[in-house]
Amino acid sequence: MYDPIVGRTTNQIIQHMILPVASLALISIANYSRYIRASMLEVIHSDYIRTARAKGLLERRILFAHALRNAVLPIVTIIGLDLPFLLAGAVVTEQIFAWPGMGRLFIDSLNRSDFPVLMGILMMISVAVVLFQLLTDIVYTWLDPRIRLT
Amino acid sequence: MDKALQTGTDAVPPVVLSAKTAPESRSPWRMALRRFLRHRAAVTGGLILLGIALYIGIGSVVFSERDANFNDTSIRLQGPSQEYPFGTDSVGRDVLARTVYGGQISLIIGVFAMLVAITLGTSVGALSGYYGGLVDALLMRLTETMLSIPNLLILLVMAKFFGGRIPNVEVAGRTFSGSILVIILIIGFTSWMYLARIVRSLFLKLKEEEFILAARALGVPNTRIILVHILPNAMAPIIVAATLGIGAAIITEAYISFLGLGVGPPSASWGNMLTGGQRFVERAPWLWFFPSLLIILTVLSINFLGDGLRDALDPHADKKV
Questions:
Q1: Do A55 and A1 lie in a common domain?
Q2: Which residues of chain A, if any, have pLDDT below 50?
Q3: Which of A141, B97, B99, B284 shows its CA 20 to 30 Å from the CA of B147?
Q4: Does A83 contact chain B (CB < 8 Å)?
Q5: Contact across the interface for A88 and B153, Cβ inside 8 Å
Q6: CA of B61: how far to CAs of B54, B127, B264, B270, in Å?
Q7: Per-domain residue ranges for chain B?
């Protein structure tokens, strides 16, 4: 996590985060780009994009300001659902990069058959899943006023 | 046929054209096959999978399982050579022979875990979609509960709990580690939820159709309606999920084996070969290169195949493009 000679400085921790963060992020990037592509394809044929074109806006502006902003919305839901799983799914990544995180704690407790710790971690993650789902639902209605939860 | 249509429209009156194309009536399956063959990535994926199957098939004829498990520490960590094309591992086992037998195990796990997941997912989805009411409520709450706990963690706990309790199995003169059975069951039991939801929504829609009403009016029993009348109509997404499920199961197996809780000795698997290679990432790259290459190739082709099947089996696919 940090070079013992240098000590536990922010700089060191950031440096040691590069690879694990990149490897976790790369997996999600692949996932999200497929979702964005699908929702972009849906949005790009809608009427307000045609209106924007008709106004003679720059293609770049249409893509980023009009299409992408709406296409990105469904992603919020997926990010919300993914976050707690990322917390847990970092098990392998933490193991490889020797980060003393929750995933590592999980594996270590598992190998020691320390079940109370395992149950604690599972409990925390399950609560996180429920919380994040609630949060995404709220954020979603705020971002997209067309959606109304009844 | 499409080209003839495009180039011919100017010269030939449309009436003649339609008369020409009309006799060629195609069944839905043939149309699906046509759409599938047009999907280049899917066909390539299929071919690569065939290649891997051949590799494992021919490999298991050339090498015996004893070759795969034979160790000789005097030749440990040797790089790829004429005698050992993929090199040798930390106790001097032939990596090539181990990828062959590891591949068998990984594919067996993939296929059987998928079968368990499909059976469970389809039954849960079908029951809750068809019967509705209390059954539906109970089964769907169960599904949601399963969905809200990360797969990998349940898998690890279950692997730890059941691992080592099941003795090695002798099948056809070969010894399989009992952990394989455990892995198959736990992967199957933790990956049926999405399919259950898909099947449920299909059943909800299909059970309102007229032909089901007709079947009911004729007094067809419920089980027969589910199995013979509705299920065949819900087959397309199940086939797609099955294909993608094999890939996911292979990856999951690699994950848990990598963490040391998966397939144990004497059986090799692509996943536990990676664990062996982890300590020699720089010193002996051939230890992890070949198993991971095979995992990537297999899963990637399975995913392409699944994508192709999804497009091919969707009856609206032609209209979309």
A1: yes
A2: none
A3: A141
A4: no
A5: yes
A6: 11, 44, 23, 19
A7: 35-70+83-319
Clarify whether residues A85 and A149 are in a common domain.
yes
Q: A54 with A95, same domain?
A: no
Tell me the residue type at B92.
G
Give the CA distances from residue A40 to residues A26, A76, B4, B17, in Å, rounded to whole numbers and listed in that order.
Answer: 21, 14, 33, 37
Task: Assess whether A63 and A77 both reside in one domain.
Answer: no
Rounded mean pLDDT, B52-66: 83
Percent of chain B clearing pLDDT 70 (strictly above): 85
Quick one: tokens of A52?
Answer: 């924007």
pLDDT reading at B308 higher than 50: yes
Q: Note if the pTM is more than 0.90.
A: no
Q: Is the pLDDT of residue B157 over 60?
A: yes
C-beta atoms of A88 and B258 within 8 A:
no
Q: Which residues of A touch B150 (CB under 8 A)?
A: 84-85, 88-89, 125
Q: Which of B149, B279, B280 to mutate to test the interface with A (most CBs of A within 10 A)?
A: B149
Distance from CA of A11 to the nearest CA of B (A): 26
Q: Answer for the pair B148, A130: CB distance below 8 angstroms, yes or no.
A: yes
Please state which architecture CATH assigns to domain B35-70+83-319. Orthogonal Bundle (1.10)
Nearest CA in chain A to B146: A126
pLDDT tens sequence across B169-214: 666 666 677 778 888 888 998 889 889 999 999 898 888 889 989 9
Q: Which domain holds residue A123?
A: 72-150
Query: For the segment B267-288, what is each residue's pLDDT rounded down to a tens digit?
Result: 788 888 888 777 777 777 888 8
The residue among A56, A71, A86 that closes a domain is A71
Nearest CA in chain A to B254: A92
Q: Do both A3 and A58 map to the same domain?
A: yes
pLDDT value at residue B301: 92
B303-319: buried (b, 16+ CB within 10 Å) or exposed (e) per residue? bbbbbbbbbbbbeebee
User: Are residues A90 and A37 part of one domain?
Assistant: no
Tokens at B107, concatenated: 């594919």
Q: Indicate the number of domains in chain A.
A: 2
